[in-house]
Amino acid sequence: MKKCLFILFMLLPLSMSAQSKCGIENTAFNGGEFLAYDLYFNWKFVWFKVGTASMSTVTSTFKGQKAYRTSLTTRGNSKLDGVFVMRDTLLSYCSAKDLTPLYFRKGALEGKRYYVDELWYTYPRNNCHLRMHRIDADGEEHWNDKEYAECIYDMMSIFLRARNFDASGMKKGDIIPLPISDARSLTNSWMTYRGKENYKIDGTNEKFRCLVFSFYEREDGKNHELIRFYVTDDNNHIPVRLDMFLSFGSAKAFLKTYKGVRGPMTSKIK
Known about the structure:
Keywords: Signal. The chain has helices at residues 18-21, 78-81, 155-162, and strands at 33-43, 46-62, 65-76, 86-95, 101-110, 113-122, 128-135, 141-148, 175-177, 180-181, 186-187, 189-200, 207-219, 222-232, 239-246, 249-259, 268-269. By secondary structure, the chain is mainly β. The chain has one domain. The longest helix has 8 residues, at 155-162.
């Protein structure tokens, strides 16, 4: 395996709490950030606009702890509904101090299935404990508890974490292990750094220098690229494009509008 940047965690002193160990310094965003995207789906070599997505982050509290509350909603339109119904709402609370995961919820209508996943994080005995709750499409509820010695994340907290990676010392092909869990199981997953590319937001004159990452998971003995995303090469690390490789085809999300950005957009190419 190529050099793993994440090995720094293995060098942390044992006296450090698991919550601190699972955090990362946030230099990318503040409360009040809002990002909006257009969604496109590929059908027989033609790209169709099939919906929208939006992500908002506000300053909040979770169980008395100051936190960032981040929500992501995706809404397919009638064109996508003819192929695959998608109505997803994801919610995440992470510590405002260091983005340590605190809570995650996903409510998803995907095809004909509606299900809910929830995770509550605690950090006893220098470990990461997950209280897991799932409501299946048939309404059956499942509760479970699991504890891990390593840090575990979810779909949202890992996204916020990735926005704060320092790529200045990265090389193409560098791998960052990132174990992710839902309310059913733990996934063997990681990110790979793909280098830099320039990207122009469609319909505008805005062009950005971007860092490119791919998110992979291993399933059935094979590696699967799930998402390739482009983030601005500045401290904000705003995702301007996401390529999603789905079981039923390919989709893309393109940044449409943004506001409440934390710092100067120094990645903008004039």
